[in-house]
Each structure stands twice: as C-alpha cells, then as structure tokens.
C-alpha cells in the first residue's frame, strides 16, 4: 500500500478508535482531526508512532499532545469558525494546524511559543501544508498578546498553577479559556468569562502537560 494511503487509513482509525468512541462529537473538530496529517508534526525518527493514542516527545524536551487531548481542548472552546483565537505553546504546530483548519478563512489565529527552534520547525510545516493564516509569535505567552485582544478563545497547551491574569484580561466577556491547571497532576479546565468578570468553570478532566514557563503566572 502507498505510504500516503496508509497514513490516511491510520488517521481514520484514530478518529474512530480514539475520539468519536470517547465522546468527541463536534463535526468541525472531527473534520479537522480527520484532515490534518499528524505524521508531519511528529519527529521523523518516531513517525511510525504518529497515530498512537499518546503524547510523543518533540525537540527541546517538549511534547506533541495526545490526539484525544487536542480534540477535547478544541471541542471545549465551542468554535464556529468565526472566532479570534490565541494559542499559547505552539510546540510541534499540530494543535495550531487543527485550530487553523477549524477557523478557515473567517476566523483569526495567533500562536505563541517560547522556543525559537520549535517555532521555526512548526512554521515551516504549517506553511508547507498551506496554513498560512496562523500568525506565529516567539515570546512569553503567559503575558498573552495584548495588541490583538480581546480574544474569543484562548488555548493553553502548557500547565499553570492558575490562569495567568493577562490572559484572563485579554479574553472578551463570554469568551472561553481551556487550560491545564496544576503541577504534577493537572485538571483540564474550561473557564468562561461571565458578565461579572468572574470565571464559570465548565469542565474538569485529568491530564498531563509540560509546564508553562513565564513571567505572567
Ligand atoms: N499542542 C502542542 C503542545 C506543545 S507542548 C503540540 O501538540 O505540539 C507545550 C509548549 O508550550 C512547549 O512547546 C513549550 O515550549 C511551550 N511553552 C511553555 N511555556 C510557554 C510560554 N510562557 N509561552 C509560550 N510557549 C510556552
């Protein structure tokens, strides 16, 4: 079988065996995970594990998130495709590609990464795949990106002891942040900004992410 066919097959199987059967149901999220070639974002030497039900190591001691977690975080944001979205922790660029796929040409996406090497690699892959609308920035995402605020949705791909205040400030009222809260043992939380300015916590799932490292904690 041609390599591209077998990747397509593995991707379809991932969607069925790891996502839909565990409750992922948002059609935009499913379509994005069905389309984005995860094998491109995995280091070459472990490419055969691209569709494992697991996080995998990437450069700089970081990880590409497990497909289920990528799907859960994307679904939690409840995107329609017209939102302004900020991602913290570009890493491999896989989650960035998923968000870019969901947002298409009507939304807007910014992604911040603190490791220049990772951002360079991710940027090349995203361009190669045609995801040219994602605006990638090197820097400390714990401080957000105030120039383009407010955002409708913020996705943190690194764990923090609490939601960084700058990110909360840069979220519009009614907007959502999905964030792994904690240190060794973390909970994936969805925070929604209410009119009063206080958070409504909407979900709580155990997860394991690399730490958010920054000034804005
Ligand atoms: N969703 C990504 C996960 C990458 S791991 C993927 O699937 O590839 C989390 C990333 O957050 C790492 O690349 C790490 O370098 C980055 N990170 C940690 N603290 C950061 C900060 N303050 N600002 C920007 N990026 C940060």
Report on the structure:
The protein is an alpha/beta fold and 217 residues long. The chain has a single domain, classed as Rossmann fold (3-Layer(aba) Sandwich), CATH 3.40.50. 31% of the residues lie in helices and 25% in strands. It has helices at 3-19, 27-35, 38-41, 67-76, 94-103, 116-128, 165-169; strands at residues 56-57, 63-64, 84-88, 108-113, 135-138, 151-156, 171-182, 186-193, 199-207. The radius of gyration is 16 Å and the shape is globular.
How many domain modules?
Answer: 1
The ordered string of helix (H) and strand (E) elements is HHHEEHEHEHEEHEEE
Based on helices, strands and strand pairing, what is the structural class?
A: alpha/beta
Number of strands: 9
Briefly, what CATH class? Answer: Alpha Beta
CATH architectural category? 3-Layer(aba) Sandwich
| CATH fold label | Rossmann fold
Instruction: Kindly report the spatial arrangement of strands forming the biggest sheet.
Output: 5-4-3-6-7-8-9
Number of helices: 7
How would you describe this structure in keywords?
217 residues; binds S-adenosyl-L-homocysteine; alpha/beta; two-stranded antiparallel sheet; Rossmann fold; globular; single chain; 7-stranded mixed sheet
Task: Provide a concise account of the structure shown.
The protein has helices spanning 3-19, 27-35, 38-41, 67-76, 94-103, 116-128, 165-169; strands at 56-57, 63-64, 84-88, 108-113, 135-138, 151-156, 171-182, 186-193, 199-207. The chain has 217 residues and is α/β, with parallel strands linked by helices. The chain has one domain (54-207): 3-Layer(aba) Sandwich (Rossmann fold).
């Amino acid at each position: 079988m041609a390599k591209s066919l077998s990747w397509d097959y593995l991707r379809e199987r991932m969607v069925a065996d790891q996502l839909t059967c565990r409750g992922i149901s948002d059609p935009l999220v499913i379509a994005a995970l069905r389309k984005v070639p995860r094998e491109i974002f995995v280091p070459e030497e472990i490419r055969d594990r691209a569709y494992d039900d697991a996080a995998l190591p990437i450069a700089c001691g970081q990880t590409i998130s497990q497909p289920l977690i990528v799907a859960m975080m994307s679904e939690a944001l409840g995107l329609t495709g017209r939102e302004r979205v900020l991602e913290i922790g570009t890493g491999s660029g896989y989650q960035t590609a998923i968000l870019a796929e969901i947002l298409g040409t009507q939304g807007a996406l910014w992604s911040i990464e603190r490791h220049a090497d990772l951002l360079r690699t991710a940027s090349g892959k995203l361009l190669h795949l045609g995801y040219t609308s994602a605006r990638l920035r090197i820097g400390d995402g714990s401080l957000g990106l105030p120039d383009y605020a407010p955002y409708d949705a913020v996705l943190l791909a690194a764990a923090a002891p609490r939601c960084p205040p700058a990110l909360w400030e840069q979220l519009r009222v009614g907007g959502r942040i999905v964030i792994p809260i904690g240190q060794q043992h973390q909970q994936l939380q969805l925070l929604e900004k209410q009119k009063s300015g206080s958070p409504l916590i909407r979900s709580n799932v155990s997860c394991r992410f690399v730490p958010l490292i920054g000034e804005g904690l």
